[in-house]
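Please fill in the sequence for the structure shown.

STRUCTURE ENCODING:
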């Protein structure tokens, strides 16, 4: 499957929103509903527990699993890659140390970050926040579809860009029309009262529309 297709609907884990639910089971339901990639995000997780979860997801899921921030855990777990922010180990240095095909994504939220990212060997960009989001404090002002489009146009040719931040089935289509290859979601699938499979189905339909 082409990378752009793998990035169509990324579901990101969040231990707070999971509220004790089994992460593997929730992710399995998400994939059954149409999720095409899973990102393990567990900022304050004990490394051994993050590794255990990642290994379990890699074994249980038919879609790529990547790990937020921790390339070491991703490599040890046999995951497909890692997603990096600007406070993480430098992407260019990591590229020299990871095997061919290991995905490295980068977060972009401003024109300045886009300029820095444009010279890096990233496989994809995650641009946001597209809309107001409660799941990442300090994410900056919402870009909206137009702001997303302006940053997405700065990505190097061939580098797919996904939208993140406050994305739901109701607004995902506007981000896709703004040039996104896909979207990344947290609360829209893991939020209170959401059935992961049904929520993923709605999102998958929205990004295909």
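FILLED IN BY: designer on duty
SEQUENCE:
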């Amino acid at each position: 499957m082409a990378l752009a297709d793998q990035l169509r609907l990324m579901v990101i884990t969040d231990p707070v929103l999971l509220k004790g639910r089994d992460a593997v089971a929730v992710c399995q339901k998400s994939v059954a509903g149409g999720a095409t990639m899973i990102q393990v995000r567990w900022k304050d997780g004990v490394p051994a527990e993050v590794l255990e979860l990642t290994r379990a997801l890699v074994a249980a899921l038919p879609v790529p699993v990547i790990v937020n921030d921790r390339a070491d855990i991703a490599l040890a777990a046999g995951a497909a890659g890692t997603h990096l922010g600007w406070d993480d180990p430098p992407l260019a240095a990591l590229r020299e140390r990871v095997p061919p095909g290991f995905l490295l994504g980068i977060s972009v939220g401003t024109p300045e970050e886009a300029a820095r990212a444009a010279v890096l060997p990233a496989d994809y960009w995650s641009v946001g926040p597209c809309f107001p989001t409660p799941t990442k404090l300090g994410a900056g002002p919402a870009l909206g579809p137009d702001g997303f489009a302006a940053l997405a146009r700065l990505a190097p040719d061939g580098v797919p860009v996904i939208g993140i931040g406050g994305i739901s089935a109701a607004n995902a289509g506007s981000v896709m029309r703004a040039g996104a290859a896909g979207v990344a979601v947290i609360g829209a699938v893991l939020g209170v009262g959401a059935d992961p499979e049904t929520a993923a189905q709605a999102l998958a339909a929205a990004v295909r529309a």
